[in-house]
Design brief:
There is one protein chain. With 703 residues, the chain is of the alpha/beta class. It has 4 domains: 93 residues, Phosphorylase Kinase, domain 1, CATH 3.30.200; 188 residues, Transferase(Phosphotransferase) domain 1 (Transferase(Phosphotransferase), domain 1); 126 residues, Response regulator (Rossmann fold, 3-Layer(aba) Sandwich), CATH 3.40.50; 144 residues, Response regulator (Rossmann fold, 3-Layer(aba) Sandwich), CATH 3.40.50.2300. Helix content is 35%, strand content 19%. It contains 22 helices and 28 strands. A 7-stranded mixed sheet has the order 21-20-22-23-24-27-28, with helices on both faces. A 6-stranded antiparallel sheet has the order 1-2-3-4-6-5. Strands 14-13-15-17-19 form a 5-stranded parallel sheet, with helices on both faces. The two termini are 51 Å apart.
């Protein structure tokens, strides 16, 4: 629970808001009290999302779905207004912890309790399915624990059975690690999806571990589709049912009603260690909350003062409102002035930490970050209308994993640091991400192509680029808009089965217009792509897509295609585009098209001033990722200028970043309600011309 901010509503329908229970990119959940004194959890959708008819329709479906479901193990809806400017949905307040919180705090549950948990969740799912609905996001965070049993919550992505959803790369509906293989592959879904998720939840409750491991979403999805679950530590009595629930084929899974009967027949008992004390403590705290006082209004005699909402959303040139301990301070910068009036205040300085490799194997990328960030900080501080100054603290990890942890510890320990950019390595590791998570410090990643962290749980990790496994959508754009073809061949390079699967699966999921797709597999132990090249020529394919991640193997593929006389389009994703590919492929690389997550600022009108300043200061064209690092500072500064948080900047800025829409010099930075960068503005195309990669532009705009 967190105190209300000055921007929070004091009433929502018949409810008086008391505190915040949580906040995310979509909206805020409040603990509120009805006119009759009952406590409720009220989810309010932000107006900017509600303005989207599709988003409002989704919320309307959520409210309708939740209201239709009854039963002892689901949380009842107590009120809703789906047509309000900021629509809301109220449900009964359950003071218990989530299953995830309970297991994390005290470890796995007793076997009998797991059976009771499963039986009652299965009963709830049976009610959902009988109503013709699917939940599609059954996970520990959506299971609350009460004294008499669990409660299934959050039907925010519930859909009518048989309904479809438009999918794109990285747009899988559900939570990786708890969704079914058919969801991971964006295939047809049904009630069996929820049963698979139930099996995953039971494994977690009984062992404290996910059956398909942790880490990056792409890896978890790959293991869900192709791997076997890890059931080590699962009580033998639960093994038959859980194994059946986790069957790859939906037809082999029991129904929710069958799972409920099996679990009930094998005996249940509801005893969760420490639950009574936790509920008593939370209930007492909730019941003791007084109705909040109206927010303090700060009067300003100036007749032309802008509205508070306009000031708070004016970005880094606006104002910062910080509240804490009953003190409210306005920090406003003014342009020019007559010299009359009160003396100007000393502007506060907020420090951005840069976590970079500036001397190790990745120093080229690290130094590009440092230069881009320095230019951005200097540009901000040179403004005459700024409301605060920015400072910079750079820490070098030299590309060493142990030093990276030490750097994270130093930056999190510095109270002046409000956000961190980096690390600048290829992978954002779980160990480093967790350090920033624990400190509630916004971690803005610019260049990393993947992460081993659990993205769904990393609430302070802000990634400003599509990960490598999402770049294939740019290849689809090219083949649809630039070089349409009747036939295309995907070369599935099994040297990296996970990377190749994500590319192949994403392209097959999205499709390429009316293009007929076939796949040719190259074994991991084969160095020859000649058979695949001959197959492309024989089939009359107008395009090949190299679904691999190795620059060296991509170069061999290019050479074999050229030797076979292939003259169509050849495409690959960014990891292949490296100096080694250009060197080894030679002339065979000519014409290859790549989708990447970085731009060439020299080719962007919006980056003209940046490019000139970079050349003047560093004597060279902007290095790769320098302009993106510049935009990262702009995003953070804009978020700071719109932050109002009782826990000051650290926690507030981390959440505000995801609600900020920043038009930078390289792209528009905005995020969906799952805290994921909107990909349509973040994938770019390059073509090899005369031995170098020439920037073509934003993939969806290239014609």
């Amino acid at each position: 629970m967190r105190p209300l901010t000055p921007d929070d509503p004091r009433t929502i329908g018949e409810y008086r808001t008391l505190v915040r229970l949580g906040a995310g990119g979509m909206g805020v959940v409040y603990l509120a009290r009805s006119a009759g004194g009952a406590l409720a959890a009220v989810k309010v959708i932000r107006a900017e999302h509600a303005a989207d008819p599709g988003f409002r329709a989704r919320f309307r479906r959520e409210a309708e779905a939740a209201a239709r479901i009854t039963g002892p193990w689901v949380v009842p809806v107590t009120g809703a207004d789906t047509e309000a400017r900021e629509p809301w949905l109220a449900t009964a307040f359950v003071p218990g912890p989530s299953l995830g919180e309970a297991v994390e705090a005290r470890g796995p549950l007793p076997e009998a309790t797991v059976r009771a948990l499963g039986a009652r969740l299965a009963g709830a799912l049976a009610a959902v399915h009988e109503a013709g609905l699917l939940h599609r996001d059954v996970k520990p965070g959506n299971v609350l624990l009460a004294l008499d049993g669990p409660r299934l919550i959050d039907f925010g992505i519930a859909r009518h059975e048989g309904a479809t959803a438009l999918t794109a790369t990285d747009a899988v509906i559900g939570t990786p690690g708890y969704l079914a293989p058919e969801q991971a592959s964006a295939g047809p879904v049904g009630p069996a999806c929820d049963v698979f998720s139930l099996g995953c939840v039971l494994v977690y409750a009984a062992t404290g571990q996910r059956p398909f491991g942790n880490g990056a979403a792409a890896g978890v999805l790959f293991r869900t589709v192709h791997g076997e679950p890890d059931l080590a530590g699962l009580p033998s009595a639960l093994l038959p049912l859980v194994t059946a629930c986790l069957a790859k084929d939906p037809a082999d899974r029991p129904t929710a009603a069958e799972a409920e009967r099996w679990l009930t027949d094998h005996g249940t008992g509801w005893e969760v260690p420490g639950l009574s004390a936790t509920i008593a403590e939370r209930s007492a705290a909730a019941l003791a909350l007084p109705d909040p006082e109206p927010p303090t209004v700060v009067q300003d005699p100036a007749p032309a003062r802008p509205t508070r909402r306009r000031v708070l959303t004016a970005g880094s040139a606006g104002a910062v409102l910080l509240t804490g301990g009953g003190t409210t301070a306005w920090l406003a910068g003014r342009r020019g002035g007559s010299g009359t009036g009160p003396a100007p205040r000393t502007l506060p300085t907020y420090t951005i930490g840069l976590h970079a490799d500036t001397t190790g194997p990745g120093k080229a990328v690290g130094l590009a970050h440092e230069r881009g960030v320095r230019l951005a900080v200097d540009d901000h501080n040179s403004r005459t209308d700024k409301a605060f100054r920015l400072g910079l603290r750079t820490e070098n990890d030299a590309g060493d994993a142990r030093r990276a942890l030490a750097v994270a510890d130093r930056l999190t320990a510095d109270p002046a640091v409000l956000a961190v950019i980096g690390p600048t390595a290829d992978v954002a590791t779980e160990a480093v991400v967790s350090r920033y998570e624990k400190a509630r410090l916004a971690q803005v990643v610019v260049a990393a192509g993947s992460t081993t962290a659990d993205s769904s749980a990393a609430t302070y990790l802000c990634v400003l680029r599509p990960f490598d496994h999402s770049l294939s959508i740019g290849l689809v754009d090219y083949l649809v808009n630039v070089r349409p073809t009747a036939k295309a061949l995907i070369i599935d390079d099994r040297a990296d089965p996970q990377g190749s699967w994500t590319v192949t699966n994403a392209i097959r999921d999205v499709g390429i217009g009316r293009t007929a797709l076939t796949t040719h597999t190259v074994a991991a132990d084969s160095d020859s792509f000649a058979p695949a090249a001959r197959a492309a020529v024989t089939a009359g394919a107008g395009a090949i897509i190299y679904a691999g991640t190795s620059p060296a193997r991509g170069a061999r593929c290019a050479a074999d295609l050229a030797a076979a006389g292939f003259t169509g389009s050849a495409l690959a994703t960014g990891p292949v585009l490296a100096p080694g590919f250009l060197r080894d492929a030679g002339r065979a690389a000519e014409g290859w098209v790549f989708s990447e997550a970085y731009t060439d600022p020299s080719a962007l009108p919006a980056a003209k001033d940046f490019t000139a300043a970079y050349r003047k200061r560093f004597g060279a064209p902007p290095a790769t990722w320098a302009a993106e690092a510049y935009d990262a500072v702009g995003l953070i500064a804009r978020a700071v200028g719109a932050t109002s948080a009782t826990d000051a900047l650290r926690g507030g800025i981390a959440q505000r970043v995801f609600r900020t829409d920043h038009r930078g010099i390289t792209r528009r930075l905005s995020f969906d309600d799952n805290r994921v960068l909107r990909q349509k503005d973040g994938i770019f195309l390059y073509r090899i011309d005369d031995g170098r990669a020439r920037f073509l532009g934003l993939s969806r705009s290239v014609r």
